[in-house]
Design goal:
heterodimer; A: 285 residues; mainly alpha; 11 helices; 3% strand; globular; B: Rossmann fold; Rossmann fold; 2 domains; four-stranded parallel beta sheet; 14 helices
């Protein structure tokens, strides 16, 4: 029983970070109906960002996370202007291909520069034992950071002019343009925010798991499952979706082999698509 | 429109150039041959070696093409690069020494034809077919890992090319009835059995063992054999579970391990998952007395884990500390061949910026040595003659004892070589150092037991 409880806590802590990653994917989908296939490699870039800042400059990895966030935002806006903007009104296949090309470019360059060797941010915040549970400092910090980021995103979307613009563009781009919303800038900002969330998730994951340039793929898949679970286009739903997935990953291995985890996750994915395609928490649209 | 097309082309070209430049910077020795050898056809062994000496028996030079793939990208990148570095060093050593000289004065040199297999089985099959047919390689060396080697072995057999496998311990590839494939490594079935013996010698009261392993061809065959062996020895296997190769979160396993409270954990898979597992066991303060992992611990980079590496034991195909010498060959009644371990280490470090060779590097070099010795003993470059020599090979290299099973059931399986077990220990000055702890006769230190 103890280890079931410990597994749930482990799963919940991880789930927060999964939630942040999925939020990035779902925000971009919600605002501009683009499925960002470069999501995984951007998560991996976030991991490498923290790694380079920590090992190269000797800066605390949590300061690294903040720097990665800023770089992620800028990178996202750059990707938007270079690859996505021209095809934003084209059929979905074009944006899929555009973001897939970005994926291939990042993976190709990343493999050439970093090779596929595993990297490790050798940083520990220690652990704390409460009865049967051992809480790892780095995971607790990541979970708290994820909550703060979600709160920040929520405040940004609902309390600022830019946030209102984003919601307006997500709701009806033509109408928003007619009301004087600079839609191109807002789309670029939204894409930037999406990649910022992905890179921050990667940066936080790098503080407790080792990674390679190919490591983002797993989290990209999880982000899709979570996005569908929470409702594509609904950032808050993504956080809850992340928590659900994290807890499932904690609980399933306690009564069956861990290899069943992805099977059950994708069964759930298909079930949600069949029974409640708008997601458990309902999409915004 | 025209301008933007030009701009796009320029961008693409620039990116291509950048990729090529970066890709080329892999740490291979300067003399490494160009990837696609087009020299093999006209210098092929069969055409030149048997030609009658017309006027004078002048030294004829034959260049044999050795074909193999390297995982320059993908998950096997680290170990594969080391293996290929070892192989390239062997080739460079032989060629720099003027080649092998056969009794008729023929000088044999080697050239490589190699491609990036991307750690991908399908690519391996495509590329070995290309190496065997278009590039007309004379002999093959396996890629790294059992999975990739199984794919390459099919092709070697199909085209009747002798292949020395290295970095591939799984037994199953040698139980398919193949006749052209010879294994340099200790097979998986004998990989962890020594760890069980070591545990028995350390603590007769330890009875509960947990096996947590990567779901791959290699690790599964290792732990299945070790589990059967442990049960034979009276151990209670309290947990036996595999994880996906991509696993980064071992939390669920660690919680299960805590619940099962074993005396010993055995398992792992390859470098990445093994080092992650060790790190997380340490972070969660799991109290286990004996912790043995496959592949990862013998790698020099494992020490980067710091405290998490302390006390971890790992089986190794070869260690620089292992002292195989002409004297030990004489004692064992075997022929000695090739450089001493120290010579290999110093040459390797000189060739690769001081990088310490791992057993993968030694395995790559040893695969070349086996082929070299077979060609010399056959006194011919004819693949059939070389094949016949390999059948009866029984010698000691710096890498260890080499002898192949020739029975139809397990043809080519390595039956001479055996593992050494290392443990990471404190060297007294606060740094981590590898010590050989098993077998007893080769041990350089006592085992730290229970694990700190």
């Amino acid at each position: 029983m103890d280890f079931l409880f410990a597994s749930i806590i482990d799963g919940l802590l991880l789930g927060f970070v999964y939630g942040i990653a999925a939020m990035g994917l779902t925000l971009i989908w919600g605002v501009m109906n683009v499925i960002n296939l470069a999501h995984g490699p951007i998560i991996a870039l976030g991991m490498f960002g923290v790694y380079l800042i920590f090992t190269g400059l000797g800066v605390n990895p949590y300061i690294g996370v903040v720097l990665v966030a800023v770089l992620g935002l800028l990178l996202g806006m750059l990707i938007y202007y270079i690859a996505v903007h021209r095809v934003i009104n084209a059929p979905h296949l074009s944006t899929l291909l555009a973001t897939f090309s970005i994926n291939m470019i990042i993976i190709g360059l990343g493999t050439a520069v970093f090779s596929a060797s595993p990297r490790n941010v050798d940083f520990s915040l220690g652990s704390m034992t409460l009865g049967p549970i051992t809480l790892l400092g780095s995971r607790v910090v990541a979970a708290v950071a994820s909550l703060l980021i979600t709160g920040g995103l929520y405040a940004f979307l609902y309390k600022t002019r830019q946030g209102r613009y984003i919601r307006a563009v997500a709701n009806n781009r033509d109408a928003a343009e007619l009301m004087g919303v600079p839609s191109t800038k807002i789309l670029a900002l939204s894409f930037g925010l999406g990649t910022m969330l992905a890179s921050v998730a990667g940066a936080l994951i790098a503080t407790f798991f080792p990674f390679t340039i190919l490591a983002g793929g797993v989290y990209e898949l999880k982000s899709f499952v979570i996005g569908v679970l929470g409702g594509l286009g609904n950032p808050i739903g993504a956080l809850f979706g992340g928590l659900i997935l994290g807890v499932l990953e904690g609980i399933i291995p306690t009564f069956m082999p861990t290899t069943w985890v992805p099977v059950l996750e994708f069964v759930l994915f298909v079930l949600i698509l069949l029974v409640r395609p708008q997601g458990i928490f309902g999409a915004k649209k | 429109m025209k301008r933007s097309i030009t701009l796009l082309l320029v961008l693409l070209l620039a990116m291509g150039a950048l990729l090529t430049a970066c890709g080329g910077s892999a740490d291979t020795p300067a003399e490494e041959p160009a990837p696609a050898a087009d020299t093999s056809a006209d210098t092929s062994a069969d055409t030149t070696a048997e030609e009658p000496a017309a006027a004078e028996p002048a030294a004829e030079e034959v260049t044999l093409t050795i074909g193999f793939t390297a995982s320059q990208t993908g998950k096997q990148n680290v170990s594969s690069t080391r293996q290929v570095n070892g192989l390239n060093l062997w080739m460079k050593d032989v060629n720099d020494a003027g080649g092998l000289v056969l009794s008729d004065g023929t000088v044999v040199k080697f050239t490589a034809v190699t491609y990036d297999d991307e750690s991908n089985t399908d690519r391996v099959q495509e590329l070995y077919t290309r190496i065997a047919t278009e590039d007309n390689a004379d002999f093959l060396i396996s890629p790294y890992s059992s999975g990739l080697t199984a794919a390459a072995a099919v092709i070697a057999e199909q085209y009747g090319k002798v292949m020395i496998t290295t970095g591939a311990a799984s037994d199953s590839a040698y139980k398919q009835g193949y006749t052209q494939v010879y294994q340099a490594y200790t097979p998986a079935s004998r990989y962890l059995t020594g760890a069980v013996d070591l545990l028995a010698s350390l603590d007769p009261d330890a009875k509960k063992v947990a096996f947590v392993y990567e779901n791959s061809k290699f690790s599964t065959s290792v732990v299945e054999a070790a589990k059967a062996y442990a049960e034979e020895q009276g151990y209670d296997v309290v947990l036996f579970e595999g994880y996906d190769p991509e696993t980064t979160d071992f939390g669920p396993f660690i919680n299960k391990i805590e619940d099962a409270a074993p005396d010993a954990i055995l398992g792992g898979g390859h470098f990445q998952d093994g080092s992650t597992f060790a790190r997380q066991i340490n972070e969660k303060n799991i109290d286990v007395k004996f912790f043995t992992l496959l592949v990862a611990p013998p790698e020099p980079d494992f020490a980067d884990l710091g405290d998490a590496a302390l006390g971890v034991i790992g089986p190794s195909q070869w260690e620089p500390l292992a002292a195989f010498t002409p004297d030990s060959a004489k004692e064992a009644g075997l022929d000695w061949y090739g450089p001493l371990g120290d010579e290999f280490v110093s040459r390797y470090e000189a060739a690769y910026d001081g990088e310490e060779p791992s057993y993968h590097s030694a395995g790559g070099y040893a695969a070349g040595l086996i082929l070299e010795k077979a060609i010399l003993d056959a006194d011919s470059v004819d693949p059939e003659a070389v094949h016949a020599v390999l059948e009866n090979m029984d010698l000691l290299l710096f890498f260890g004892h080499i002898k192949f099973d020739t029975s139809p059931e397990a043809h080519g399986l390595q039956i001479g070589h055996s593992m050494v077990y290392i443990q990471w220990q404190d060297d007294g000055s606060g740094n981590l150092a590898k010590q050989v702890v098993w077998p007893m006769e080769g041990a350089t230190a006592d085992t730290l037991y229970p694990k700190p």
